[in-house]
Write a structure and sequence with these properties.
This protein has helices at about 1-10, 15-20, 30-40, 85-95, 110, 130-140, 160-165, 195-200, 210-220, 230-240, 260-270, 285-295, 305-335, 340-345; strands at about 40-45, 55-60, 60-65, 70, 100, 120, 145-150, 225-230, 245, 275-280, 300-305, 350. Helix 1 (about 1-10) packs antiparallel against helix 13 (about 305-335) and helix 10 (about 230-240) crosses helix 11 (about 260-270). It is built from 14 helices and twelve strands. The chain has about 350 residues and is of the alpha/beta class. An eight-stranded parallel β-sheet has the order 4-11-10-9-8-7-6-5.
Amino acid sequence: MDDVERAAAAVLPREVWDFVAGGSGRELTLAANRAAFDRVFVTPRVLRDVSGCTTDTTLLGRPARVPVVVAPVAYQRLVHPDGESATARAARDTGVPFTVATLSSVPVEEVTAAGGRVWFQLYWLRERGRSLDLARRAEDAGCEALVLTVDVPWMGRRQRDVRNRFALPGHVRAAHLASGGSSTAHRSAGDGSAVAVHTAEAFSPGLTWRCVEEVRSVTRLPIVLKGILAPEDALRAARLGVDAVVVSNHGGRQLDGALPGVEALPAVAEAVGESCEVLLDGGVRGGTDVLKALALGASGVLVGRPPVWGLAVGGEPGVRRVLDLLAEELRDALGLAGCASVAGARELRAVRLP
């Protein structure tokens, strides 16, 4: 995966690479996400038959080839002309769900038309009705779940974008927003990020638990809350009847100094028990990371940057190779840990070393 990252950095324009790779503030949380994974070690079991080792599992009650979901990433046409369509097709062929972002550069209907499992990520917009309309639109388009992002009242201060005065090129637009064709995201903000100005205009800082109930009232789809770190919030979500929570600090792109998801995961998993699924994102770079997340209580992980690296390097085949690599590495890690299945990984003992 490191090779794919380096290749993507080499082919993308510097300001686009910074938009994809960067975090907020001093990027302490961005770095901590990886460091936290590197501190986790598992205790393998032995003398177990792993000749039939499989990565097959279920996510939100539906089959998945591996316990991996492609995370929502905005504006994928920045890195390849086919954008989200190519990433979704690769996810379909790999047998994992793909999450369409509110800020996708391809409409959800084009993504679902290709088949496969598709989830829709929803931001709460200043125009409340438009948020609910997007939830209905996703269901009508054939999406399987709604992923409500709850940690973005506004975009974190991403210093790389500020320094680059980053703005979207004309051919990339927010396909689900009425102003996506020509918006402040496309006009230089002078001494800052045009994308941040645009999201500040579009996103509502008034997202509350009541809004979660509103979303529930307009859709029959499973609801996933993405951006949970506190066990108390996870427990409240479970009591509201959400189907899953994603333990996440937004890939280090929101509050700099927020706890790494891997550190928060065990307490969240303990808090909700079996009342809802627990997923993890932030810093997942290989199959052993997935194994560690399972051992710490997750039922699966979301991966965001690695598929985008693959998209930048090789389009749809590049994304497929990234996802196949994760599957290959996870199967290897499961077998070497003495686990014939994903369920077995959740029984492993995991420890954090200083």
